[in-house]
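Board notes, transcribed. Complex of a protein with zinc ion.
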Amino acid sequence: MTDADLLNAWPFDAGPPLPRLLRFVDALAAGAGSATAKSSGTMESLGTFNRRLARLHLQLVGRPLEAKVVCACGEELELALPIEAVAATADPPATVGIDTPNRRSFRLPCLSEIALAREPRALAEACALEEGDALSDEHLATLDAVWSAADPAAEITLDFACTACGVPIHAQADLALFVARELDMKMRGFLAEIHNLAGAYGWSEAEVLMVPAARRRLYAALIGGRS
Ligand SMILES: [Zn+2]
């Protein structure tokens, strides 16, 4: 995967982060001629996609993701997202079951279904692997808990105590938002380099990107020193 591949795959629009990241992941897979290019991230569970985002972030950006949380006491706290832990999560099971009172099996909801924000009962029936007992509200709550336990990377939670007042704080982080922001900064960094080097040496975008990253930085320093 070259810097040009990354730049070509990145959607430079201001849309919501999750669809942009899905398009990015699909474009990278298609560009790499991956056999799984057809199996879009939208068919993955949220946890599986979060794991993919965490690995992508570690591979492409690497630096810790810091979330800012403001406590009720006014203290502003910075916390690192558990990105390594998310990247290391295991595959969720293909199916889970609940007693209704007969056993019913369900697959995990995939991203495209979650994005539709379907009503819980419709979502449960869409994920049911066979017909069975009617689902009560209690069953739906149980299924939701079973789904969460089976796909731990779906929810990225931060549990800590405020350093100023000691109150325990429970916060949830939207990983897609953080990863999209970091990748956007990285891609805009490429654009700045291209702008700089193309202007100074008359190279094309493709020519600039063919220069290894370390050498691009050295050229940029030379250009900076000359002006
Ligand atoms: Zn506090």
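The chain has a mean pLDDT of 91. Residues 71, 73, 75, 162, 164-165, 167 surround zinc ion (CB under 6 Å).
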